[in-house]
Amino acid sequence: SQQGEEDPQALSIQEGENATMNCSYKTSINNLQWYRQNSGRGLVHLILIRSNEREKHSGRLRVTLDTSKKSSSLLITASRAADTASYFCATETSGSRLTFGEGTQLTVNP
Amino acid sequence: GAVVSQHPSWVICKSGTSVKIECRSLDFQATTMFWYRQFPKQSLMLMATSNEGSKATYEQGVEKDKFLINHASLTLSTLTVTSAHPEDSSFYICSASPQGAHGYTFGSGTRLTVV
Question: So what's the pLDDT on residue A1?
Answer without folding.
Answer: 33
